[in-house]
Amino acid sequence: MLIQNESINAYHTNAALGCTACKKLHPELGGSPALFYDHQTGIVPHVRKACWDLGNAYHWYFLENHDFENRVAIRPGGIDFRNKVGKEWRDEQYASGRLIITQQEMDALLLVDGRLVDDVRDALSQGETLIEPTIRIERDGYTTQARPDAWNPALGIADDLKTTAKFDNFEKDAFKLGYHFQDAWIRKHILNETGELIGQFRFLVVETVSPYRSAIRTWDADALAIGQRLVDDTFEMLDHGFSAGYWPSDHLVNKIMSPPHWATEFIEYEPVDDDNCDPGTEVTL
């Protein structure tokens, strides 16, 4: 099911399960079925993070600039969210559906725009591109959803804009943050919608601090294979969880612990023959 022009609030508040929610299922992504269940049922409360507001501000500036001023509020100098006036101003912005960034962050965004490399700018302005389309898959007992930042069906390309303050570490951080899972997740939803595999999924990376670099990054075949396996595993866990109503924590209950490898280099002791050890003998390591 393809839905165009769905608001970001409608996307996040409907019951369909998105990539971020489903990453909490898989142990290889730092999750478990129990953690997923606790987030879905509110046992773990949702906490709004300032970094999300900044990331969304970049998305709206580059992808939906015509509506940027209606969606983003610049925090006035002197506003302190710890006092009554500051809290009231903040809550008023959030109630109106606007997110908040500082003037310094806005100035940095403009510098990023001014230094954007041609390849990234071209990717953000290709014709016949669907901006933030919602793609849903209806399963037995649940629905999943994906929302690429941009998708050009004619070219077979989908894009996701990523902001980072650690540009040189993006490749390492991307794997740790599960962006290979996100790639495979979006590919699966597009395949289900169109019956065709997309040719490329690109991360459009922009640096939010000086020197405000930008670049295009894509995964190699190994990362794509890992992401696809994780997505397949996730759908199996979802099918089982919703059919059985069982969301285990999937952790080892009993485990023998060992010191880290580096610590063993400093251990000096004589090997002990346990079979011939006198029970009354004190063994010193």
Written overview of the protein:
This protein has 285 residues and is of the alpha+beta class. It has a single domain, classed as Lambda Exonuclease, Chain A (Alpha-Beta Complex), CATH 3.90.320. It is built from twelve helices and ten strands. The strands form three sheets. A five-stranded mixed beta sheet has the order 4-7-8-9-10. Strands 1-5-6 form a three-stranded antiparallel beta sheet, with helices on one face. A two-stranded parallel sheet has the order 2-3. Strand 5 and strand 6 form a beta hairpin. Helix 10 packs across helix 11. The C terminus is likely disordered.
Ranges where pLDDT stays below 50 over 5 or more residues in a row are 281-285
Decide which structural class fits the backbone.
alpha+beta
Largest beta sheet: strand ordering: 4-7-8-9-10
- Share of residues in helices: 40-55%
Question: What is the element string, with H for helices and E for strands?
Answer: EHHHHHEHEHHEEEEEHHEEHH
Question: For the record, what CATH class applies?
Answer: Alpha Beta
The CATH architecture can be named as Alpha-Beta Complex
Number of helices: 12
CATH topology value: Lambda Exonuclease, Chain A
Content of β-strand: 15-25%
User: What multimeric state do the chains show?
Assistant: single chain
